[in-house]
Amino acid sequence: MKADTYTDKEVIAAIKSGGPKRQEVIRFLYQDASLKSKIIQFVTRNSGNYHDGEDMFHEGIIVLDRNIRQNKFKEETSVQGYLYSICRFLWMNQIRKQGKVTLKEDHSEMDSTDTTTPEQLLFTDEQKEILQSLVGQLGERCQKILELWKLSYSMEEIAQELGFSSAAMARKNKYRCHKSLLEIIKKHPKLVNTLKER
Fold it and tell me: How far apart are CA 91 and CA 94, in angstroms?
């Protein structure tokens, strides 16, 4: 991570503060080409491809963001090191579920990270495509609301981001969009069963 851009403390503070600062820091993390390359290399060395590596990098940032906001990041390691550990865990878990090779390198550095959240967030590529296809049946605005909600944005932040008059109005729209998604899901029981096969 570039020391002349953001320190770890600045990254953590910005994510916790929310709003434009948080968005700027998230963009900064996405632009960390060195770390992204390292994660892609790890994945490609272990039964994955470049696209898989990009997916793990994206998912890792989502988990990092959520864990910092929920005070699960203990600051015992660098933000960069923590993000790398999350991405490694996500990929290890995925190839384990797919019955692929067992990784042989030392993963002791991951002991200090919260491994529950990444595992709970993990879906196979097929499941992601199914879920995305269902969400895609919603309107663009609902898709944006649910995406921000998934990224742990507060109702105040969602209201600010999408121009709602208040957090209550954002909450009302989120509820309506979520209800619409559930209705779509009910109409596709076979897809729901596939999602449950984890």
Answer: 5
